[in-house]
Amino acid sequence: MLFFEQLIGTQTGLLLAFMVTAAVVVVAGIRLSIYGDALGNRTGLCSGLIGLIFLAAVTSLPELVVSLTSVIQCADPSQGADLATGNMLGSNIFNLLILALVALLFPRKFSPTQLKSPHTDSTLYGLGLLAIFAAAFLVAGRSAAFVPGLQCSGLVILLPVAYGFILRREHRQQQKAAEEEKHLPAEQVLAHLPAPRFYGTLGGLCLLIIGGGVALSVLGSRMALPPEQGGLGLEASLIGTLFLAISTSLPELVISIASVRMGFLEMAVGNVLGSNLFNLLILFAADVAMRGGSLLHHASSKHWNSVGLILLLTLLAGTLLRTRSRKATLTTAGIMVSIYIVAALFLM
Q1: Who contacts 335 (Cβ-Cβ below 8 Å, separation ≥6)?
Q2: Residue with more model confidence, 195 or 304
Q3: What angle do CA 37, 39, 44 make, to 5 degrees?
Q4: How many domains does the chain have?
């Protein structure tokens, strides 16, 4: 323990620990892509719904843990709020970028015409939850009032209500698709493993991701320290939007790549869009966990840049999933990557 404290006490050691922890999260995420399809085989759910609900929730556990730990551990309410909010919004931005990266890396396998649906509903759901968040952010910025007992912004309560409605509607729509879906032999073998072994492994992978999320939040907080204290001297909002967001979104990236390579494009798209829905739900949990007042009241106004970027990339992602030619797919994906790079340079 003393050696670890000494290691992360330097900038080099801090970055090294950050990368190693992120690698652990990636390894756990790789296995989840396979177990996710096997879970669909066991439960009778289609891969799109597995991606939208199960994989989205599991791969968003790092964001959940990082956001909760940030608001609980940080002594400065503004720093904790910026880390949590920046992590959530930044993860949504990077998740949308994942669709573009997968389209560019695997142009032959990423064919939107093979999708049973262009996931228009999921895209609209994401825009709806983003609108609720924006309204809550706007109101909280003008008033420090919060709901007694929960101690969160009033409009934030609408997020879990809307999310529950979305899950219920999606489950009904995709039940029929599960009956026609085929699974690979490897996933069929996993699907027939004894329940204790299957769900034990599944739980172990979830714990690895949760543990990695806790570690990343601690390391992210240290990055905000001044250079003379071993930190990077960066703003909490920047660390949350870039460092924490990208690292906690690595499971989504790995699972999406693995899913597309195995022919599960529905699962990959469902995972990305579902993660963005779940990430916005995390805002409610973080706001309730922050007992010192409203999370969004303490969050920096700089996060409005991220809100605008999410809106733009979501619209482009919806366009990407409706393209009918490889040229149009690559062009749209290239535009999304270019926008992300420009935005990242702007944030720096």
Answers
A1: 316
A2: 304
A3: 95
A4: 1
- How far is Cα 288 from Cα 157, in angstroms, rounded to an integer? 10
Provide DSSP, 155-167.
Answer: GGGHHHHHHHHHH
- How far from 228 is each of 2, 155, 223, 275, CA to CA, in Å? 19, 41, 11, 37
Q: Please tell me the least confidently modeled range out of 6-15, 106-115, 274-283, 311-320.
A: 6-15
Q: What pLDDT sits at residue 217?
A: 61
Domain with 212, as residue range(s), is 2-347
Range ranked top by mean pLDDT from 132-136, 137-141, 286-290? 132-136
Find the helix or strand (DSSP H, E) in which 242 lies: none
Amino acid at 191: A
Say if residue 298's pLDDT is above 60.
yes
DSSP annotation string for 134-145: HHHHHHHHH---
pLDDT of 67 over the 70 cut: yes
> What does R_g of the chain's alpha carbons equal in angstroms?
20
Six token digits for residue 207: 């714990």
Q: Tokens in use for 39?
A: 């879970």
Structure tokens at 164: 């529950």
Give the pair of three-digit tokens for residue 238: 């920047």
The CATH number linked to 268 is 1.20.1420.30
Confidence check: pLDDT of 223 > 50: yes
Q: Please give the Cα distance from 33 to 291 (Å, whole number).
A: 36
Residue 182 predicted with pLDDT over 60? no
Tokens 């990368």, located at residue: 19
Q: Report the pLDDT value the prediction gives residue 183, as an integer from 0 to 100.
A: 47
On whether the CB atoms of residues 240 and 46 are closer than 8 A, the answer is no
Q: 248 and 216 in contact (C-beta within 8 Å)?
A: yes
Greatest CA separation for the chain = 60
For residue 229, give Cα distances in angstroms to 16, 66, 129, 226. Answer: 17, 22, 39, 5
Place of tokens 């172990």: 204
Question: How many other β-carbons are positioned within 10 Å of the β-carbon of residue 182?
Answer: 8
Read off the pLDDT band of 308 (50, 70, 90).
very high
